[in-house]
Write a structure and sequence with these properties.
single chain; 366 residues; alpha/beta; Aspartate Aminotransferase, domain 1; Aspartate Aminotransferase, domain 2; 2 domains; 7-stranded mixed sheet; 4-stranded antiparallel sheet; 13 strands
Length: 366
Amino acid sequence: MDPDAVDELASTGLPDDGAHEDAVMTDREAETDADVQSPGRVPHGSTDDPWLVDFSANVNPCVPDGVSQAYQSALAASRSYPSDTYEEFRVAAADYVGSDPRQVVPTPGGLAAIRLAIGATVEPDDSVLVPHPSFGEYAREVRLQGATAEFVAHDEVLATDPADHAMAIVCTPNNPTGEAADPDELAAYADRCAAADTVLLVDEAFLGFTDLPSLAGREGVVVARSLTKLFGLPGLRAGFAVASGDLRDRLDAARITWGLGTPAAAVGAHCLRDEAFIRATRERVASERERMRERLAAAYDVYDSDAPFLLFDVGSSERVDDLLGTAREDGVALRDARTFRGLDSHVRVAVRLPDANDLLLDVLEV
């Protein structure tokens, strides 16, 4: 099979007759791989099949008004290098999360912010507290530094002792389970991390779907943010990290020069300022998520969620295979959540627009 096709099939979780088993490692398999030069690719959602309605990727199906115009206006300026200060983008990002613009470090996507934070903080033989089940790229980035991922249940991270670890990682709301950390408990944990001289990396990729406060700008904390999810622009590759003091200086010194393209910076600033779009998206997602949860709960064990997706247990691994196949035949792509560490019989679905969500519920016969 063509390698690109293998990667696509692995990322969507759709059946491919087992051809990808040697090409892609799950999080658990990667844990046993001691060679930091080959830690394995991490499966993700999304499909390029135009005939499928994609519920496997947690991307907003809507984008803010004016995105095309902002992109086109910036395209002419792309004949020159972008200003490496990214002043407009930094100001918009800082206003969005409530921090100082000088604390914002632009990156080409949220994952780039995560890589930057880990690369500038973690050294070989360090240990890092990594939540599970959660975003598989955390462990991969830790291993690329030659460090050890110390896995902790995602809902127990805030109860751990951060001492003797170079970093602790929290995903809020957590992917794939969906629940957000309690802000007070997270802030208290951040203080404990700072006292222990342990960097706290908080992935807030989905926090924009809630009205919960960001931890951006807090001492000893790196916040990673993305424009992929909330603004429906995964191909734009725009995001940022936020940190303060010496930690911010280390990140800014380590970031790639001109890492954010001119159109990405312009569109990013435009989106981050669109408060009406953000508010409308939050309201729609909250309403549709609850409607979907109630329907799904009639047949499955559904997790509580503050995010634009729902995780549910279908009962067995075989049932996951059946559900993925049946849904694909009916034109719907689901996320095979078995690729997440510790999940053996789970499926994750995104919250999309009402008509698409109705299609999903009909396909799942709930």
